[in-house]
Design brief:
Elements: H1 7-14, E1 21-24, H2 33-39, E2 45-50, H3 53-62, E3 69-72, H4 78-84, E4 90-96, H5 101-104, H6 131-137, H7 140-150, H8 156-166, H9 175-187, H10 205-216, H11 219-234, E5 235-245, H12 248-257, E6 264-266, H13 276-281, E7 289-295, H14 297-300
Parallel strand pairs: 1-2, 1-4, 2-3, 4-5
Antiparallel strand pairs: 5-7, 6-7
Length: 303
């Protein structure tokens, strides 16, 4: 079962109270939403969005006894979701940009490199291009750039060349196919890869799979649109946004967007990180970074 990261910190920083209109733009299995809903009652309204129909089913089961509204939509389309419901602006917005345990365990889409299954990786399998199809056509230089930029793979150029070489005879269609290419390249023929600083064993598979997921779902495009256009148009003056990121690129984008010059007052001087006890309980929280900001009234009124 998915464990929501930084739950206590999110609830504290959102400063919830009865009557607020709150959007959870990445509702997932409703880990955060389940705790947000009672804190805005009576009179509050909670709307949960997700691109993944599977996660909406999980959220629906958990929120069955509430009036939470669940919508199949990317958070970048929040303006349309609100317009459809006759809502102008909302008081609070939460985004958790991480992948859930349920998605990682889904063998039909190949999010987790150790879960098996086809290389799909789409949040919404009714739209877009599966990862296997992208790998079958992508230019070697573009693949190397993506692996380096999104996955921070140190041997990105060599790995891109090996993938392009392998696909000439057997294009990778499953997680096992891709791992068969990734691991030998990382080892370089000399045992398991080792980090330069610590000498510890390290596999490149997580970074490679992260790269494919980001590309296939256009995650950074959605985040950029949300930060630049959607959020300023949808959040009330004085309202708060809380964003949890797990990737350095995402965190930089959030930090740059939620700056005073753009009409925001950061309420967290530095990104909030998981406590040592949370990391022990939920190791995937180690890379989580929470940034929170309030929309400044004067500038918000001009948007």
């Amino acid at each position: 079962m998915h464990v929501p990261v930084l739950l206590r910190e999110v609830l504290r920083e959102l400063d919830l109270r009865p009557g607020l209109v709150v959007v959870d733009g990445t509702v997932g299995a409703a880990g955060h939403a389940h705790q947000i809903h009672p804190r805005i009652q009576p009179g509050g309204r909670l709307i949960g969005l997700d691109r993944d129909p599977l996660m909406l089913r999980h959220a629906g089961a958990r929120m069955a006894d509430t009036d939470c509204e669940l919508v199949h939509s990317p958070y970048s389309h929040l303006r349309q979701v609100l317009d459809d419901r006759g809502i102008g602006r909302v008081d609070r917005v939460l985004l958790d940009l991480g992948l859930s345990s349920d998605q990682l365990a889904d063998r039909q889409r190949g999010f987790g490199y150790d879960a098996g299954g086809p290389l799909d990786m789409r949040f919404d399998t009714t739209q877009g291009e599966p990862a296997a199809e992208w790998l079958a056509r992508v230019d070697e230089a573009e693949l190397a750039r993506a692996l380096s930029e999104y996955g921070e793979v140190p041997h990105a150029a060599r790995l891109a060349a090996d993938i392009c070489q392998a696909r000439r005879t057997r294009p990778p269609r499953t997680t096992a196919d891709l791992l068969a290419i990734v691991e030998p390249t990382a080892r370089g023929g000399g045992g398991r890869p080792r980090t330069e600083r610590t000498g510890a064993n390290k596999s490149s598979a997580p970074q490679v799979f992260q790269t494919l997921r980001i590309v296939v779902n256009r995650e950074l495009d959605h985040l950029r649109e949300f930060l630049d256009e959607t959020l300023p148009a949808c959040l009330e003056p004085g309202g708060r946004v809380a964003i949890i990121s797990f990737h350095s690129i995402e965190d930089r984008m959030v930090k740059q967007a939620l700056r005073p010059a753009a009409g925001w007052e950061p309420t967290t001087r530095k990104p909030v990180e998981a406590t040592p006890s949370e990391v022990r309980f939920n190791p995937r929280s180690r890379s989580a970074r929470l940034r929170v900001a309030t929309r400044v009234t004067q500038l918000a009124d001009r948007t």
